């Protein structure tokens, strides 16, 4: 994923440099694109989810250190729609509902045995961000921007009390969550449509692992909170 992000950054930088070098006075494509009050589009992309884990404090003089949560990441995919409301020449309000699929492997390593059993935890999110897009002045046929806002998601694969187990104990994900998001990208005005590659980080507010009643899940009793962190690489077409 780091290689993917680095490659995307190089591509964006390279395209911007080439545009500046060879198109100082280009023929403007889609001259009236930014004058429309409402704009629509769709996006395709990739994601990678991880967990930020906070542990309970323990008195280590007793010899107990608890279990350590491990996560093995993978790359998933995104697809969704875009609705954009123009506020002025530099500000747009965007709603980007989409379907985000990802699979993480989760396990708990005992500090005594140093052994971890990993199980797959699949997540299919309906992800709904509301974002403020802040753009620069259009430079020929490109326009860099930053974007930030809040989002909510609904996990269609939530398995509270169902399938994923470690030693007969359920690893249960919450059904919904809330996030704040921030990112950047560049609009490229092509002949027939606007193409925008972007990178965005997403950070959850709520604990992601469902706990149930105290004592139900021994593996998570050492954990104070697990918070999803994600990177999205999207390619939008408007």
UniProtKB/TrEMBL annotation:
Q: Where is the secretion signal located? A: 1-20
Q: Where is the Outer membrane protein beta-barrel domain?
A: 25-208
Q: Does the keyword Transport apply?
A: no
> Has keyword Signal?
yes
Top-rank taxon of the source lineage equals Bacteria
Q: SUPFAM superfamilies, from UniProt?
A: OMPA-like
Print the keywords alphabetically: Signal
Pfam families linked to this entry: OMP_b-brl_2
The name of this protein is PorT protein
């Amino acid at each position: 994923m780091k290689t993917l992000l680095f490659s995307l950054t190089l591509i964006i930088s390279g395209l911007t440099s080439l545009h500046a070098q060879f198109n100082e006075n280009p023929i403007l494509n889609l001259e009236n694109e930014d004058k429309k009050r409402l704009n629509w589009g769709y996006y395709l992309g990739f994601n990678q989810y991880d967990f930020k884990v906070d542990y309970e404090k323990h008195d280590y003089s007793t010899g107990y250190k608890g279990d350590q949560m491990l996560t093995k990441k993978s790359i998933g995919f995104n697809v969704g729609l875009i609705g954009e409301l123009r506020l002025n020449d530099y500000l747009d309000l965007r709603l980007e509902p989409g379907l985000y699929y990802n699979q993480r492997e989760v396990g708990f390593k005992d500090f005594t045995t140093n052994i971890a059993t990993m199980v797959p935890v699949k997540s299919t999110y309906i992800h709904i961000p509301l974002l403020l897009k802040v753009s620069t002045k259009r430079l020929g046929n490109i326009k860099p921007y930053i974007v930030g806002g809040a989002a909510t998601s609904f996990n269609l694969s939530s398995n509270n009390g169902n399938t994923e187990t470690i030693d007969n104990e359920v690893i249960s994900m919450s059904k919904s969550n809330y996030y704040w998001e921030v990112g950047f990208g560049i609009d490229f005005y092509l002949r027939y449509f606007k193409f925008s590659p972007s990178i965005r980080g997403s950070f959850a507010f709520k604990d992601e692992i469902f706990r149930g009643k105290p004592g139900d899940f021994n593996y998570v009793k050492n954990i104070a909170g697990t918070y999803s962190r994600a990177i999205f690489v999207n390619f939008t077409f408007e």
